[in-house]
Write a structure and sequence with these properties.
Layout lengths: L1 H18 L1 H5 L3 H9 L5 H18 L4 H23 L9 H19 L9
Helix pairs in contact: 1-4, 1-6, 4-5, 5-6
């Protein structure tokens, strides 16, 4: 039962990460606005998109779950930090959806990493 729940959490995280890529990789105006605000446009937008793609894939591969969760926590932690310091909770009138999605993704990734912590080779 626990493995099915964890698989579900991993899939949810991967879907969240991967569905945002179309905005980053196509240069959607909202994505460009966000990355301009934090001084990372365009290279940061593309680099973050690549990291999110890698993390989403690694979360679905059993041997690399912990790596995917760790990358996700780092990238999304940075997004949360930018929301708290430069962007604010609501961006372009989104009502805080991006911020609360980031919090959810961060929390779920932390839960996944906790349950897969024994798979981290240098902690064995």
């Amino acid at each position: 039962m626990k493995t099915k729940i964890l698989l579900g959490l991993r899939i949810i995280i991967a879907i969240i990460l991967i569905q945002t890529l179309r905005f980053k990789f196509t240069g959607h105006p909202d994505s460009i606005y966000i990355f301009k605000q934090v001084g990372m446009e365009p290279y940061g937008r593309i680099a973050i998109g690549i990291l999110e793609l890698i993390a989403g894939i690694l979360l679905l591969i059993p041997k690399t779950i912990w790596v995917g969760a760790t990358i996700t926590i780092g990238v999304i932690g940075g997004a949360i930090f930018m929301h708290m310091t430069k962007l604010g909770i609501a961006v372009n009138g989104d009502g805080g959806i991006l911020f609360f999605t980031a919090l959810t993704t961060f929390t779920l990734s932390s839960v996944v990493l906790f349950f897969y912590r024994k798979d981290i080779p240098f902690l064995k």
